[in-house]
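Pasting as-is:
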Amino acid sequence: MIVPAPGRGIGPRGFLTDEEKKAMPKVNKKLLLRILSYLKPYWPQFLLVFLAILLSASVGLLPSIVTGRIVDEALVGKNMKLLIQLLLIAFATLTVSQVIGVLESYINAWISQRIIYDMKNQMYDHLQHMPHAFFTTERQGDIITRMNTDISGVSSVISGTLSSIVSNTATVVTTLIALFTMSWQLALVGMVVIPLLILPTRSVGKTRWKLLTKSQEKNDEMNQLVNETLSVSGSLLVKLFTREEREYERFRSVNNEVTKLNLKEQRSGKWFGVVMGMFTQLGPLLIYFAGGYFIIARSDPALTVGTITATVALINRLYRPVQSLLNIQVDFTRSLALFTRIFDYFDLKNNIVSPENAQKPDLTNADLRYDHVVFSYDPEKPLLTDIDFTVPAGKMYAIVGPSGSGKSTVVNLIPRLYDVLGGAVTLGGVDVRDMDLAYLRSNIGVVTQETYLFNGTIRENLLYAKEDATQEELEEACRIASIDDYIRSQPDGYDTVVGNRGLKLSGGEKQRLSIARVILKNPRILILDEATSALDSISEHAIQDALEHLMEGRTSIVIAHRLSTILKADRILVVQGGVIAEQGDHETLLQKGGVYRELYETQFRTILDLEGKADAQG
């Protein structure tokens, strides 16, 4: 039997992978109590499950025991009435056992799904409140794995591992009691085979594991190929470079290797099944031999043919749960590893939270102040060493600087996507770290270069800014953002689906929709992070009025590389070397002949020339 290993890959039952051995969790009281805390709310249901398992194990003995009476009393005694009665009893006990099993399975499934429900809610809530830095450093695939695969795996732990341990233990204990009660000699003979079940399992299991490891590697390669070539961007690249046949040959080759490895593994599994079948049949044969000898030699007058038959039935019932219990350590370790991976995420700390007695100051006429701010992502690589400036309420300041100078980082400190390491960012004289976090962010509007839209309708994306917005408010925001005419031209209007990440819209349409969304939010502070850098000049001019309307009366800070935007700023801040190297208006900074002058000559002037040509052609 092959069971999934937690996290990634698969491992054979009875074996731990090298990765699992290295990451084997330390079993301690704290970990066990933490796991039990998720099971505790459902202890009444667990009690019902355990009682059902015990009852099922006990009732399950009866058909085997009744078989002995059928042979000794009904068949040998030629009693048809008793035969019918015993057969009905056997059938009734089998039916009851199956019904109890279904009930136990249903309760078990209900418990496991409720625990998954609780854990997914807790994980989603926890991740939603993690700082922005977490999502920029953690791989998205790992987040989804923890959220879906790992937590869903808890179901197999509860309905599989935990129930299996209890069920198999109950079956083994009740069966052993019944065996030794009927004939301790035959019980010992039947148990001689148990070591023979262990050795081939481990030997063949290692061989199958090697094949499975290779197969998994090839499967990963095939999945990677599928993800790359059948994604939106990947399939477009394949078509543009006419590589359909080449990619098909790559897929066919890898698929062929996977198929061969799977066939080898399945063949080894079939032969393993034959060997195991021979050993499991050896036990009953030995019991028949020993029982026959005792009867023929009359060494045990109390022994009957019915007792031998019942013993054989019970010994067959014993082998599978014994084999499963021998692998408890592996199942238990994998279960703990699964919970450990989940708890690792739960234990991640979020340092960007609202403080106690958080403030909610009036930000109507609040100055934005950077008071000697220091920040770095890596302690060994300082990024901002002394950022010091003030944006008066209602003014628009532009930030420029060489690539990698930290322009985006400067503005990300305002909504506390990151916290300063030194100095302070204040609004209206209040440190943003002392404010209520939700209140702070609700008063800040951000338009970024890469607009993100959910795969829903235009209406749904707009309502994300203000859930109770009326249709009139939506239309007014879109008119200001110069996107209302486009929306009305669509067959479904505001119910038009924008596609995954807004792929059904052009760059300019997405950007204008993003501006409309911020207009609906109606923030006090506005941040524009290169909001028009990805657009052509025509698209930029189409939304420039919308941006100006949006910034009117608001304290705004703009990261820009287009001169047309920079010239409209009340003040230009030049970031270089972790400080504000220069500041002033366009003409003053040009006359200084410093960093701004260099940026103008290398970047802004070239873009300005291109804009002029576009206007001339238009």
